[in-house]
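### Sample
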Amino acid sequence: MNIYTLVIQTLMISPSGALSPGPLTFATMALGINGGWRKGVYVALGHTFFELPYIALIAFFMNIIRDILSGSIGDLITIAGVIIILFFALSLIKDSIKGSNPDARNVISGIGNAFVMGFLFTSLNVFFLLWWLSIGFSLILLALEAGFVGLLTMYLAHIWMDFLWLSLVAEAGKRGTVIFGRRGYRIMLALFGILLLFFGINTVLKRFFSISLL
């Protein structure tokens, strides 16, 4: 496997996962309201903390992981993920109703929370897990042809998109607050909360009833 070919294919395939809007995107934008792009970096670090070892496991135990995710354990992961999403969404809506100050400590403040949310929203997103077992698996197979160097090269060519994208959406959240003021801040909290509620409901419908609202 030519390393340059691997990099090009990674750059072509990765956006289908890294740049697709979802719960992690909107949660990051909400977190960014109180910290800008730095919160996006911490979310991406939490995301990476799970994703990198997960890819390594797929490289060696792909069939076992696929069977696990397609069964009851996959259902439990989905339920746990939806609970996290709904809790975060309702907390955002609650803060918007209370009229929390952008500088106050609330559910979306704290750098530590950004890392934790990045990890949780990644590890408990069964559709993310399945992406690496389907679309992303072709990249893993190509990378393994070049051994450890290929796997590392593939991941580096992939992960920078996550860091860039999540930093940008987090900064967008902050700038939106600066532009629209406190009223805009409350509206943005409510909007992100509603969007996360929508994604949580859609996740349940898609997993258990094969119905997608998107």
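The two ends are 37 Å apart (CA to CA). This sample (Lysine transporter LysE) is used throughout the tutorial notebook.
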